[in-house]
């Protein structure tokens, strides 16, 4: 008998009908002879609605209380799901993250899992129950307070439980059929990927792909837990994310040269204008940013103008951190020495990802050609061994993603990319 951990996202359990549909699917897995642990997210947009509500009573809600509030979302769906399963004649028990043994650090709203002690879950499934676990939450080892893992954290709960329970597989059920070569909401001809390596998936996740969270993939890679991403709405096979290619029948799935195109419109660009071109300037700028606890992404420094000896340095960062970064730099203006700051939140990033680019020359040239044919201007460029990213105008992003997707032969013949649910909120 195997043990499967299944995770159902908010759009899969958005209403009573959805909960009943998910209950049936879980019972199916149990009837196939498995022990089943199901991790659930809050129903539909519940988490967003709770955040809105909190902000109506306090502009900056206290982290501890916000966590207490948000974890209620997952408690609702876990209890309802357990009831629905019992109604189908099977035994189920629901558990909060804390009861399931998800131990975290004490950073509210974005806690990290430091240990999982799933004793109660093990006992529950050994007694023949289906165990339902509230995703996205844990309990702090030090403060004993309830914590949450950051938005979308239920995926990480599922992978962490799968690792702790030594599960055979972790299935992540969502509102699309798997991982696609681009966001199916933008590229109608995006193709479902049969298998993708942890490395390529990490790059896609880090560069805007929302189907799996970066932290969750990181966790899966560390403990070598294969993830099967699939839809709870269709019965189709999804995408396997693992260290080695999976076999499908007698067909071995090969490593693709290019795995996909990711895009991200959540970043902004800051340009520090008129920086003296001398040692220590970049260090001073980025020390200021780091001290404000802001993570940056790309950096570009221009050559200095011969006449003035001054240069410009641009970098990108999450839009949400924009205000904080500008304030921190302004405060240190005399210490750093620069003329002015420019802030631009109308940018977007497009990234091409694939381990095959290490060994295939010309990928970069083809990428830039596709962008130029689409009339898209490039503002910043950055690369890793298996990724090329560019920053463009935000309004050009969708067009650029489609152009690059076509140029690299990723378009599918059929419109197979179906988005089954979710408000995309
Ligand atoms: N309910 C939480 C959120 O919406 C966690 C999750 O969905 O994974 O972010
Ligand atoms: Mg959600």
From TrEMBL:
PANTHER family: ASPARTATE KINASE, ASPARTOKINASE. It comes from the Bacteria. One of its GO terms (molecular function) is aspartate kinase activity. Substrate binds at residues 47, 74. One of its GO terms (cellular component) is cytosol. SUPFAM superfamilies: ACT-like (SSF55021), Carbamate kinase-like (SSF53633). InterPro entries: AceGlu_kinase-like_sf, ACT-like_dom_sf, ACT_Aspartokinase, ACT_dom, AKii-LysC-BS, Asp/Glu/Uridylate_kinase, Asp_kin_monofn, Asp_kinase. Residues 270-346, 352-425 form the ACT domain. Its EC number is 2.7.2.4. Coiled coil: none annotated. Keywords: Amino-acid biosynthesis, ATP-binding, Diaminopimelate biosynthesis, Kinase, Lysine biosynthesis, Nucleotide-binding, Transferase. It comes from Streptomyces fumanus. Pathway: Amino-acid biosynthesis; L-threonine biosynthesis; L-threonine from L-aspartate: step 1/5; Amino-acid biosynthesis; L-lysine biosynthesis via DAP pathway; (S)-tetrahydrodipicolinate from L-aspartate: step 1/4; Amino-acid biosynthesis; L-methionine biosynthesis via de novo pathway; L-homoserine from L-aspartate: step 1/3. It holds the Pfam family ACT_9. This is Aspartokinase. Belongs to the aspartokinase family. It is an enzyme of class 2 (transferase). Catalyzes the phosphorylation of the beta-carboxyl group of aspartic acid with ATP to yield 4-phospho-L-aspartate, which is involved in the branched biosynthetic pathway leading to the biosynthesis of amino acids lysine, threonine, isoleucine and methionine. ATP binds at residues 7-10, 174-175, 185, 210-211. One of its GO terms (biological process) is diaminopimelate biosynthetic process. It catalyses: L-aspartate + ATP = 4-phospho-L-aspartate + ADP.
């Amino acid at each position: 008998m195997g043990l499967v951990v299944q995770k159902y996202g908010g759009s899969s359990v958005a209403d009573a009908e959805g909960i009943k549909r998910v209950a049936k699917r879980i019972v199916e897995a149990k009837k196939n002879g498995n022990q089943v642990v199901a991790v659930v997210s809050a129903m539909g947009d519940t988490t967003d609605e709770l955040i809105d509500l909190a902000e109506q009573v306090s502009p900056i809600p206290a982290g501890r209380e916000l966590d207490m509030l948000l974890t209620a979302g997952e408690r609702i769906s876990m209890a309802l799901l357990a009831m629905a399963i019992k109604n189908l004649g099977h035994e189920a028990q629901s558990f909060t993250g804390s009861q399931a043994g998800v131990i975290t650090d004490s950073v509210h709203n974005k806690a990290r899992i430091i240990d999982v002690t799933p004793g109660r879950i093990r006992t529950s499934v050994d007694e023949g129950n289906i165990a339902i676990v509230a995703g996205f939450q844990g309990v702090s080892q030090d403060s004993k307070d309830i914590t949450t893992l950051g938005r979308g954290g239920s995926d990480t709960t599922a992978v962490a439980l799968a690792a702790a329970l030594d599960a055979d597989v972790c299935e992540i059920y969502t509102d699309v059929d798997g991982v696609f070569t681009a966001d199916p909401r933008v590229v109608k001809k995006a193709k479902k990927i049969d298998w993708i390596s942890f490395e390529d998936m990490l790059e896609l996740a880090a560069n805007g792909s929302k189907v799996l969270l970066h932290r969750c993939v990181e966790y899966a890679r560390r403990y070598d837990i294969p993830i099967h991403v699939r839809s709870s709405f269709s019965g189709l096979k999804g995408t396997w994310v693992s260290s080695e290619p999976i076999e499908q029948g007698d067909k071995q799935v090969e490593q693709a040269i290019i795995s996909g195109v990711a895009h991200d419109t959540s970043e902004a660009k800051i340009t520090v204008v008129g920086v003296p071109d001398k040692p220590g300037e970049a260090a001073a700028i980025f020390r200021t940013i780091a001290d404000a606890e802001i993570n940056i992404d790309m950096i570009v420094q221009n050559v200095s103008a011969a006449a003035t000896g001054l240069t410009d340095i641009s970098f990108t960062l999450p839009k949400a951190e924009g205000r904080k970064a500008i304030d921190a730099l302004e405060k240190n203006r005399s210490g750093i020495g620069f003329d002015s700051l420019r802030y631009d939140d109308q940018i977007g990033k497009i990234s091409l990802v694939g381990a095959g680019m290490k060994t295939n020359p010309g990928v970069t040239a083809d990428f830039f050609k596709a962008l130029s044919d689409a009339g898209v201007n490039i503002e910043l460029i950055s690369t890793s061994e298996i990724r090329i990213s560019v920053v463009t105008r935000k309004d050009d992003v969708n067009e650029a993603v489609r152009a690059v997707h076509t140029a690299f032969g990723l378009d599918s013949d059929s419109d197979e990319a179906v988005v089954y649910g979710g408000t995309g909120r």
